Amino acid sequence: MLSSIRTRLTLSHLAVIIVAMGLSGALLLSLLESYFLQAMEDSLATQAEITAQALIPGAMVETEFEAPASAWNTLQQRQSNIALQAQNVAPVEGEEPLEAMDLGYLADASLQLSSQLTTRIRLLDTGGIVLVDSHAEDQGADLGAEPLVDQALTGQQASRTEQTGRESMMHMAVPVLVEDRIVGVALLSQPLDDVTDVLGDLRNRWLLSTVVALVLAGVAGLLLSGAISRPVRRLTEATSAVARGHLDQQVPVRSHDELGKLSQTFNEMTARLSAARQMQVDFVANVSHELRTPLTAVKGTVETLRAGAVDDPQVRDRFLETVEGETDRLIRLVQDLLVLSRADSEALNLLLEPVDLVALARETTGQLSAQAKARDVCLQVEAEPGIPRALADGDRIQQVLVNLLDNAIKYSRPSGTVMVRVDSAGARGVRIRVEDQGIGIPAEELARIGERFYRADRARSRAEGGSGLGLAIATSLVEAHGGQLSLQSVEGEGTATAFWLPTA
């Protein structure tokens, strides 16, 4: 099941949500707990101040907090009677104020305050002895060894949280001062039930919201993963079909994201593969046709000679010339196919060096001058001064020129001119342009001229011995040099073929 990308994406999505919510929830609850505990400490410090001022005439406490006005206003009226009663109780001269006070009064007053404040109140003397306990449990007990009490007797506020069974308690000890002299300790204890209940409620709400969020995240994850997995599944199915030989596969492109671009690239790839296969099929068919024609001619000639024509010298010589011509045609075809095959496999092994294209053009036109003269065609070379040398394989570029000039001569009208122009093409490099004044190419066929074995005038091309590979070879050789070949033609006016080569 986990092999499904949709499942993995959904689980990954949920895992991220769970981790994020778990960490955020734990952090939030921790911060809230710290906040509530701090608030409880502030509350106990306020209560300690209220307690000291209510029970002991002239007393104050040393705390780290200022009593909030709201807390003071809430309890001010409730303690007023206790405070008035405390003013009528005077300490005995020479004794510690807490020890000299009426303990019965303190007990009643502390019990009353404890009920009003919902806090256990214990008053301790400077020796750590509990003088008054609002719960009447520790009265007379020695708590001097308690770290909280010991710290408070040094003038510092202290607090701690204690877990007893299921109940959590916060204890706070603060020093009680009269005229800047420590006279005792106020030890206040309060259950943390409210804090625990609030935190528990928050925890339950958080768990509920987490469950709801996970459900929603799961639904969103399924939708999101489905949106991702569907195009991937279509691509997988299409790829499998391509692997089985069905190259015409296309997948819908429904987005502009990475998956959409991948689908588009896949469609382009299959289109090229399909075109390449069709080209291969056509190529094999064309090669078979081109080979079959001369081979048939050779076979027919040989059979005729075997039938007795070999005894006639004139007939024999004519037939042998036919065999020789068809053999030459086969050799040229095989050579052309070999060049194309090497160009396609990038195995031409070009010998690149600085080449003077002007000199090369003049040399090539000189080699074809006899062929041009036989067709009453004039060959001319025109070059700009200061043409830079091209970085090229001279033999291969001469082969390109031969193919272009051969076509220009074949399809030129008598008394026509074939012009070879060599000029600078700026950033492109050096340009060679072959122009003729021949029959031209029909517009509807111009786009196919570069295809292998394609002939605009099939009858004339075959009569001239052409295979339809010349321009394809020229294009492959130029592109192998990093150049570019272009063709322009107007039917009835002539054709111009140009190619660019990088400079040395």
Q: What's this, in brief?
A:
With 504 residues, the chain is of the alpha+beta class.
Question: What are the SSEs and their pairings?
Answer:
Blueprint: H1 5-55, E1 59-61, H2 69-87, H3 97-100, H4 103-117, E2 120-124, E3 130-133, H5 147-153, E4 158-164, E5 167-178, E6 181-191, H6 193-243, H7 258-306, H8 313-344, E7 353-355, H9 357-367, H10 369-374, E8 378-383, E9 390-392, H11 394-410, E10 417-424, E11 430-435, H12 443-446, H13 458-463, H14 470-480, E12 484-490, E13 494-501
Parallel strand pairs: 8-10
Antiparallel strand pairs: 1-5, 2-3, 2-6, 4-5, 5-6, 7-9, 10-11, 11-13, 12-13
Write up this protein:
The chain has 504 residues and is an alpha+beta fold. It contains 14 helices and 13 strands. It folds into 3 domains: 5-199, PAS domain (Beta-Lactamase, 2-Layer Sandwich); 260-344, Orthogonal Bundle (Helix Hairpins), CATH 1.10.287.130; 353-501, Histidine kinase-like ATPase, C-terminal domain (Heat Shock Protein 90, 2-Layer Sandwich), CATH 3.30.565.10. The longest helix has 51 residues, at 5-55. Mean pLDDT is 77; it is low at 65-95 and 458-463. α1 runs parallel beside α2 (69-87). The strands form 3 sheets. Strands 1, 2, 3, 4, 5 and 6 form a 6-stranded antiparallel sheet that branches. A 5-stranded mixed sheet has the order 8-10-11-13-12. Strands 7-9 form a two-stranded antiparallel ribbon.
